[in-house]
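Entry for the shared binder. Reason: the reviewer on the internal report wants the predicted structure included alongside the sequence.
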Amino acid sequence: MKLFSSTIILISTLLLFVLPISAQKISYYNNPEFNPYGSLIYRPGTNIHSSVRSYNMNSIYALANVDSLLYDGLKVPKGKLNFWQRIFHDDLLKWQDDDISIKINPLFDFGVGKEMDEGKGTWNNTRGIFIEGTFGKHFYFYTDFLENQSAFPNYMDDFVHERKVVPGQGRSKEYGQNNHDYAQATGFISFNPAQWFNIQLGKGKHFIGDGHRSLLLSDVSFSYPYLKFSANFNKVHYHVMWAQHRDLNIDPVLESNDARYLEKYSASHYLNVNIGKRLSLGVFESVVWAAQDTMGQRNFDLSYLNPIIFFRPVEYSLGSPDNMTMGLNAKYIVGNNSAFYGQFILGEFKLDEVFSGHKWWANKQGFQFGFKSFNMLGINKLDFLTEYNQVRPYTYSHRETISNYGHYNQELAHPLGANFRESVTKIKYQFRRIVFSGEVMVAMYGKDFDNNISYGKNIYQNNQKRPGEYGHTIGQGLKTNLLYAEGSLSYLINPRNNFNIAAGLRIRKEQNDLETANTQQVWFAIRTSIKSIYTDF
């Protein structure tokens, strides 16, 4: 492909500037419930670019002993560990010499539960493995594979049947009666050609922001292929990423002949600057275009290959056929371990329409405001987060459905799509190996209930089917209220892969004028918890 030939040229050029540096390692702890680095990252003066996840481990190594963060307050056997002791306390297998290091750990989630409203048994059977390592001074790699079979609570079942995918985990195929079989593989190689530069090539997810949600780019959808070029100059972080996405909504006739899913591409920039010891400001832009649209077969458009050009003038020069998204991210650290944060997202903008008060349909905007605190009230490992999100109708959608801001039948930003208001509050407390987590989420949104009319929530509906040009407000359509609450208690066994035993209660109520859907689920699991899997939608 043209993209990969260009990549080879880019890498070859950068090799001219190779310096004696270490490979850039990336944190694989993406589950906030068990992330050991939060209280360090949000200290004033650390100069870590916290809005770019997964975190750059080289920056964390420069500030602290990682093992001391992982095993803080935990007793482990001294001396060389045998195989069985490593299962509970360390990497299962590891090999290291001067040039190569490799670590291998299991991934699993064996769980059972009961969905009380319908008397349905739920269960999960996940087996997998992850491997990470370095080759020489410049290369780091990570890969994992998960094979799953599950029986979900009612609201997740409805999601899978509607969208044909398990939230964040790929396409589902039927397994027995009303059960699901699915798999996921992710991996990337990270190459440091010079002191300040990094190149990643792989398949995975990304997150930009400091909150529980992101309105810019989130990790709620399935993994996707990407090429990412990053530059870190002390207080400045900049990256450009090109990615390939897929749309599962193909013609059923074609699907019966094993047709490939429709392809689309995205290119995005993110520039983040740490100002002083406490303030951080970031600017984001992304453009999505279909591999084949009304203009014909485009594939990867070389117009978006330039890593430092602004996309809006390029998109306009092409006749404005593509889906542009722009936004801001901000963070201000208060005290020693707390921060206010926020985002602003902009799809389309006409100044006169914004201030006219007529509520034009293409006023595609949203914002986030939140607060998070680690070691809150001086209590060690008491963490708290609360945030508010709202997004106007039709944000992230497009006149060509395939060009929406989505991948694999899920959103690339907020899991509720658009046309919503939401409040999320989370609390976590850890005492040695015991971890308590709680969450309450309340949302109001306008549901799309007619396939022939788009009210602006479902980004996979054509926004040309809207009911008029003006008068569009958040909650239009079938006004729906959602309450989600979950609490869990877990016992951490091995922090290397977040091996833990957990039990919890999940309550969900979705209500509108047409129906009320209740979920009350109790569950128990023996699991590893390094990935972000979202069930609060």
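Summary line for the report: The domain at 32-528 is CATH 2.40.160.10 (Porin).
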